[in-house]
Design brief:
The protein has helices spanning about 10, 20-35, 100-115, 175-180, 190-195; strands at about 1-5, 45-50, 55-65, 65-75, 80-85, 85-90, 95, 120, 125, 165-170. With about 200 residues, it is an alpha/beta fold. It has one domain. A hairpin with a 2-residue loop joins β3 (about 55-65) and β4. The longest helix has 18 residues, at about 20-35.
Length: about 200
Amino acid sequence: MIYGIPGRGLGQHTHYGTAATRAAGAVGERLTGAVLNGFADRAAIFHDLRVPGHTINIDHAVLAGSRLLLIDSKLWQAGRYWSVGGALYRGTTRRDTPSKAVAMAHEAFSRYLGPSVTVVRPLVVLWSGSQAGRPLVVDQFGRPLGVTAPFEYTARPFLHLSYPGGKAITGNKLHPRVKRFIGPPPHHGVVGDLLPLLT
């Protein structure tokens, strides 16, 4: 079951960043969506959910049984990313500190859904294109399609990359992570609780 369209919300929120950052964000969400939609026969896949009690959204959610996995997608410039003391770097260049939106979403969904639903630690999926700016494209099984980024240009985190409230992984690790998460069929009552949050 698939609910929502990945990347659609960024086209509706013109107050978020520049047109270029919104377009890049939408590409990242579509890449993640292509992987997640491959699990729609075994889980409920949601794209672009409003975070309860906040004005922000979470890009994706996967519901298996009564367990919910929240996922945020990022399309970052190719390079090596690492963090120390809360500061984020690409190579030797310091970047903007990541927002706490993922942590807020985790807490808000846990509170909204109550103790009968386990909201696991969210994933932050980092995608990157080649230096020429062509996106890394995968199908729903995580296999590369078309032009892919050379390995040395992918946005893979160092061991010490931390992200507030979530676990940062690269796009090529998303499929096996979600595959391990999938379990019993999605609980219909929880699906009903999440549907009003679709944007």
